[in-house]
User: Fold these one by one.
Assistant:
Number 1:
Amino acid sequence: GNWYWVSRVRLLFAAENPYRFTRRVVEAHKLRLDSEAVIRYHMYVDCMNTKSVPDIDTQMLDNITNHALGACQLDGTKLNWLVQRLRKQISLDYQRAHNRITFDSVAHTLPGSFTYVTIAKVPEIAKSAARIDIPKYPFHKQFDSFIFNSFLTRPEAIMSLGDVRTECNKVSSKD
């Protein structure tokens, strides 16, 4: 017989439930449309002009570079090359974020002009991953208990300890 190419998504096995198969195909089609919309959105943002976007503040860029190099143990030549790539990537990401904010605000204010654009939403997984649930803790009660049991929270006690240390240093230097 004849041979036909069938994609795996559209292949229904005899033992498979046809209703589940239909749901799977519909879900795959929906995911494909969503993925195409996200790719199109990012393409629009990436194609925006970056020359009119202000550059990232040099002090901020220096701080990021210093933090990134805090634990670095590379030699000078390789390190300089990596630092230049890092700074270029940070600047590009900054400009892209600026363009994304601009694009989103224009698309929201003129929705009729951008009917073909689906603004990318932050997935719920990313939102929940960025949060840490902190259990209830009686902070004020514990702090009050600490203050009650410690004199080191009082300015008078701290000043007195400083004076005692000064006097001890004077006595020890006379010997």
Number 2:
Amino acid sequence: MVRLLVALSLVSAVAANAGPKNYADEADAVRNMMEAAPRAPEAPAAGARRKPALVAAASTTAVWALDTELFGNADRVERELREMSAASAGKQTALATKSTETSQQRAARFFATHGMLSVGKLLGAEISASEAAKAAKEASEVQQRLASSINLRATSFHTASARQDDSNLSNDIDMEEEKEEQAQRQLWKMVDNLRHRAPRV
């Protein structure tokens, strides 16, 4: 069926460029093409016409050429995909080692690193003592790296803020808190007013 559609579009494109100029000739050309298209074997109907040998040969040749081109392109794409996958094989193995851990194993590791082994046991996400120790060690290393990067940022922040007067800073904080409390009181007053206006049910 796909071959028939491809052949039909190919012939119609050729016919549109150099084909007959009137509708009767175009209809005859399409009928000849349809008759020349390969079909599934079926019992010949009484009075059915035979397709001309010349049209059948031309159609078969066009379909064969199209098949050859399509399969050649498919082989080329497959070859390119193999080359791309071979180039990124190292990356894939690194990703594959990381993704082999199941969600239950990740949950068990989370519970172990956050001091919730009993919760993990209750939920069925248990981990061995050696794996728990390894996970705790990895988590502490990550925490240390994170703390060191935060310390670098905090140091630069403290040097900039050391120039400010601490009393001015505390006054600014108190004033800001007072403004926030005042805004909260106003909101709750509006809520109370709406509640009192509403009809009682």
Number 3:
Amino acid sequence: MAGGSKKLTKEEELLLQDFSRNVSTKSSALFYGNAFIVSAIPIWVFWRIHQMDLFQSGILFGIMTLVSTWLVAFAYKNVKFVLKHKIALKREDAVSKEVMKKLSDADSKKMSRKEKDERILWQKNEVADYEATTFAIFYNNALYLFLIILASFYFLKSFNPTVNYVLSVALAGGLLALVSTGTK
């Protein structure tokens, strides 16, 4: 864009959107919903096992659950971004074969090469987005719950249950968010 500023076409904007860190509203709702559920699990652990009073600690549980929800959702987004590109590269051949197989001979002859490539790219991005989303949720949930159990039952077992809860949830959420910022 040497002389003046060019407007991006709709296709270019969609392509850039597929490779940005921003997630769709649907993905964001899915991430925050799952993050809230997994962040609420430690409440049961500390209520039933560590014998914390549910009503007395309700405000603390609510605040820490919300903080943890934000950290876990942040980790989901980061892991999805990193994985989406890796998955797209690995699935490219299989997706292009599938798309070409779906196109009948008549459709294939009518379409230009550019249109076929756009369909392949769109399908590849859809597959990569779905797989990256599901794996990010699974991976982060497993790691978060493992860190909660490790912190609360091993490292912080001698602490008061309230301090144990706050530190366990903050430590697990913080470490999860930190680990998710890696690029490999």
Number 4:
Amino acid sequence: MGRGKQQSHLLEFYGIDCDHCVDMEPLIQKLREEEGLGIRRFEVWSNEDNFRVLQRLDQGSACGGVPYFYNKHTRGWICGATTYQNFRNWALGNSYERFLPPPNVEDKKDGKKASAPGIMGIFESVKSFFETVKTEGLDRIQKRTEEKDKDKEQQEPRKKSTLIQRGAFVAPMSAPHMATDSRRCRMDAW
């Protein structure tokens, strides 16, 4: 029994609204037209199953982001947007660079276009990416913490009133009512 259409051995993991993922779409189309190679796409920002697959393939979080391209035949991968030639070499199983940002990448900080980056440009690009991931992660953690605190505040009055009704709380004691033994309180002072 044949499966009909054979699935591509080339995979892309992307995120919705990811600028670098969008930048790669014309290159994916060009690869399909010139080489006849399709790429299976997996959205990871809203699909946990796809995210788990990405984590398995991106061992040790060597890339740690999207777009992430994986070649099942060679087990080779590319992290982030790249040049067409590098992308094509990866797809065909030829020599390629895992981290090679494309030339003329717009620098978001000052709005200028940079020429093909040297090693420092690549370093700055990777550094900027990780700073963005860190900031977004910290923002998500802060938001979750605030939501949990808000939920806790809403639940505490109900808990307290229920405990008071059950007699769990007693009148607070002031210093003169404390016994000399710090491990216990004098009950006759109430």
